[in-house]
Amino acid sequence: MLDGSFACEMVSSRVTLLFSKKFPMLRLIYEFTESIRIAFAQIKANAMRSVLTALGVIIGIVAVTLMGTAINGIDRGFQNSLAMLGDDVLYVNKWPWRNVEDWWNYRSRPRIRPEHAVALNRVIEQTPNSLLEVAVPVMGTRESVKSGSQQISGVIIFGTSDSYSRLMSADFKSGRLFNETESAGGRQVAVLGYDVAEALFQSRPAMDQTVLIKGQPYTVIGVLAKQGSFLGMFSFDAQIIVPLVSFKKYFGTRRGGGELRVKVTDKDRLADATDELIGAMRRVRGQLPGERDNFSINQQQAFKDQLEPVKSGIAMAGLFITGLSLFVGAIGIMNITFVSVKERTKEIGTRKALGARRRTILLQFLIEAVAICMIGGLVGLGLTFGLCLGIQAAMPSLPIVFSMDLVNISMIVAVTTGVVSGFAPAWGASRLDPVVALRYE
Amino acid sequence: MISPAAPTHERTLRPKGDLVIEIEGVSKLYTMGEETIHALRGVDMKIFRNEYLAIMGPSGSGKSTLMNMLGCLDTPTSGHYEFNERDVAAMIDDELAEIRNREIGFVFQTFNLLPRATSLSNVELPLVYAGYSPSERRQRATEALEKVGLGDRMHHKPNELSGGQRQRVAVARALVNKPSIILADEPTGNLDSKTGVEIMGLFEDLYELGNTIIVVTHEEEIALHARRIVRLRDGLIESDTPVQ
User: Fold this and answer.
1) Which of A65, A279, A410, B213 is in Cβ range 3.0-4.6 Å of A384 for a Cys bridge?
2) What is the distance in angstroms between the Cα of A344 and the nearest Cα belonging to chain B?
3) What is the pLDDT, as a whole number, of residue A8?
4) What residues contact residue A102 under an 8 Å CB cut-off, 6+ apart?
5) Is A31 close to B73, i.e. CB distance below 8 A?
């Protein structure tokens, strides 16, 4: 027989009800954990369907994260390249580092001559509290280089003075830069870029060896550490630095394209330093008031300004295209959630009859959609990680970087996709009329 | 424990308790296309605690509509409905869900168990919505299953149970939240007659224990288990008589 403690149980049941009414949060947590349990049971029960649906999300996540990684990489390469220029260095050139339409106004400007550096340094010394530290002359050309049987052509030969050491961004792998005496005396000594040393001497030490630049013997006194290329245009590792005096002597000034590099004392006051430099250069050049500057002051910012739109353009286009694949994945999720709601209409009716509120039903289907997306997101992330490692191993020069941000972003993207695509069907389910839902076969 | 082979009961009429349900002039209109259907045309009814009531009527009589109304699955187009002195007619969806959860235990013709959940999980479901903790859910659901004689089938899924056992699970689920009424819609409709008698025996026991039971059926034999029969025709109460 049944035991007859019904009345007593009724009382205890009311007490518990009061308790749970007092803590609606607790009830929400129970509903939530129940929904998660149901979601995973459902995914397991419809394994094939869930996997296929998740595949859309996986592809979307992989595409988006790989694109993100690539953009990250481009950005890093970009930052590295700019760092090579130095953020505390102003460049004095004949031409500005931007596209000019009135090129005829620039063409007739006098060349920037290395001698300007001497005069400029004198002006800097005379200026109290100058924001400029030192001006360094630089000239460059391309020549072929030979050592023993090894020959390479198109190496950037870079003539400068010993004060170049004060604004150099590269590190030495071994050796040093030429000193004042060697610089002023035009001694035939050279500092090799990493790739040049590698190409000429392979694994043998390059120090104190002799290289022939355009037939002229130079003694190697230093080798630079690896730096990489500047925006993929030219490599800092394929250069040779020699004293300016000997550069002028052998590699000519016929085309005469020189520049001055001026280090500033405080990079936070770059604008003031630029103004000072313009004034100093005008003095050196002996320009009259009212006359337009016949030189340009450049800095890395100019590159940034030019390349930033290109970079963001690539990012926008890339994310848009990869976003489309994610969108298709999201449609898959929405579709499968609609199917799931349709299939389980009667179950929804039963749950509503047993006291499930709109919120409960909404949560249940939302969690199901989000769970599929999160599984897809995790798998996609794993694939991206593997692909990144693979690409890095196969092509080390590509700036592909897998970062922790990527994990966060892809999980956020996955969850958002789940919520957005699952919402409409879940909302529909939550608002089903229980009478209609119960009658559904 | 109820022994399944004990369908005969001495018919006792227990004294009526407090008023649980009071409906007055309840009508329900459906519009299907351009046609308006009067499913209920002004029904008055009072149901007291610990009544055993059968609602009968041919199809189209408004029987299902009345059951949906009593079960707070639907609200009347016009009229008055009080459940334990609370005005149900004016309630919104979630309030109705609350009433269904706490006050009404449903037993369906097609059992409506969740196919992939065990008996225990199925019975726990109303408790989840009521906000009980997992341990309390387990305890109560176990008790309810033992009451209907399924203490040894708690971890079976519906497809591992017979029809009668499934309906017992459904009854346990209806009981588990200690509702004010148990509302059964053709509870024996999908069972063979022997199993049907067993289930009706279970209702008899529950009635003896003080539960209020409303059975909606079109079978005279089933209705005769109740102590009061309400007959509907064309959306109106045709008769409301006690069973001797």
Assistant:
1) A65
2) 10
3) 43
4) none
5) no
Cα-only R_g, chain A: 35
State the pLDDT at residue B13: 67
C-alpha distance from A409 to closest chain B C-alpha (Å)? 34
Bridge partners of residue B82, in order along the sequence = B22, B87
Task: Answer whether B131's CB lies under 8 Å from A30's CB.
Answer: yes
pLDDT (tens digit per residue) in A248-290: 888 876 556 788 999 998 888 888 999 999 999 998 888 888 8
**Which pLDDT score is estimated for B5?**
42
Chains A, B: CB contacts under 8 A, how many?
Answer: 101
> Phi then psi for A349, rounded to 5 degrees?
-60, -45
Number of DSSP helices (H) and strands (E) in chain A, helices first? 14, 12
Q: What is the pLDDT of residue A333?
A: 94
Low-confidence stretches of chain A (pLDDT beneath 70):
1-23, 229, 231-234, 253-256, 397-399, 401
Chain A: closest CA distance from residue B164 (Å): 19
Q: How far is CA A55 from CA A49, A61, B82, in A?
A: 10, 10, 52
Q: What is the pLDDT of residue A256?
A: 61
Picking from B201, B193, B191, the residue whose alpha carbon sits closest to that of residue B163 is: B191
Contact criterion met (CB below 8 Å) for A199 and A153: no
The per-residue pLDDT for A114 is 83
Alpha helices in chain B (DSSP H): 63-70, 93-103, 119-130, 134-147, 163-175, 193-208, 220-223
Q: Looking at beta carbons, which residues of chain A come within 8 Å of B2?
A: 1-2
Task: For strands A132-147 and A89-93, give the pairing.
Answer: unpaired
Distance from CA of A57 to the nearest CA of B (A): 27
ipTM: 0.91
pLDDT of residue A102: 85
| Residue B41 backbone dihedrals phi, psi, to 5 degrees | -120, 50
What is each CA distance from B210 to B67, B180, B205, B216, in whole angstroms? Answer: 21, 10, 9, 19
Any residues with CB less than 8 A from the CB of A155 and at least 6 apart, and which?
A142, A143, A144, A145, A193, A196, A213, A238, A239, A240
pLDDT attached to residue A319: 83
A351 contacts chain B (CB < 8 A):
yes
Cβ within 8 Å, pair B73-A2: no
Query: Which residues in chain A have Cβ-Cβ distances shorter than 8 Å to B125?
Result: 351, 354
**How far apart are alpha carbons A79 and A221 in whole angstroms?**
30
Where does residue B7 rank: exposed (0-12), middle (13-18), buried (19+ CB within 10 A)? middle
Helix (H/G/I), strand (E/B), else coil: A152: strand
pLDDT tens, position by position, B3-45: 444 444 556 666 667 899 999 999 999 888 888 888 999 999 9
A17, A346, A353 member nearest B106 (Cβ): A353
Helices and strands, number each (H, E), in chain B: 7, 10
Mean pLDDT in each 10-residue stretch from start to end of chain B (244 residues)?
Answer: 46 75 92 87 93 92 91 92 89 91 94 92 94 92 94 94 94 93 93 92 92 93 93 93 86
